[in-house]
Specification:
It is a single chain. By secondary structure, the chain is mainly α. The radius of gyration is 19 Å and the shape is globular. The protein contains 8 helices and no strands. It starts with 9 loop residues before the first helix and ends with a helix. It folds into 2 domains: about 60 residues, no CATH class; about 150 residues. The model has no long low-confidence stretch (mean pLDDT about 95). Bound molecules: fe (ii) ion (2 copies). One fe (ii) ion binds next to helix 5 and helix 8. The site of one fe (ii) ion has 6 residues, from helix 5 and helix 8.
Amino acid sequence: MKTFDISDTPAAIVKVFPKASDFFKQAKVDFCCGGNQPLLEISEKKKKKIDIDALLTTINDSYVSWLEAGNKQIDWDEVTYSELVDHILVNHHQYLQNELTPLSQFVTKIYKVHGSAHPHLESLFKKFHVFKMEMEGHLIEEERDLFPLIKQYEETLDPQIAEKISLLNETMIEDHEYVGELLKEMNQLTNDYELPEGACNSYRMTYARLQELEDNTYQHIHLENNILFKNF
Ligand SMILES: [Fe+2]
Ligand SMILES: [Fe+2]
């Protein structure tokens, strides 16, 4: 059985073993927008050195147990473009469409009620709403322009369509970098969603849902940048 080593990139590891994203997140290693550098290079560049050997051991141990438990990796290279697009629509776009508006009400509520005692909630409120607006516009562009073109290409294999897709992908990747940066800033503002002492239920729920938003979005961007768009 092949396990992972320091010449592998975080993007390639998460592609085979999606749960590795949890360990990369804990170690603050980017696996989506900047996930295409080998682990060795990442550990050399990081200002705060990370223990890459320990991280790899954790990932490999977890990967082996995951396989032994009968889990099967999805071979994304075998999945058709339409299947991947539909997977993204159901698991990520639909999630955002259901989640962003109710979550906005909670982020607003905790800012209103606790903003004077916890001033960082003002910046969180602002950044979340920039994220929301950007993401909503981004979903429209993918669903209206990009995804139909990808499905059209699958049927026709027309190189002109592939060229259009590749141009659109560049803009989508820029959007991903921007929203990824906003998620990082929100995480820093809240010290990785650390709750203050005596936090009320709304505060707890808002932070838990923001964390879920972060996880879901990193997976979403990973599937688009590192798998779907790589074909064009
Ligand atoms: Fe998307
Ligand atoms: Fe996207």
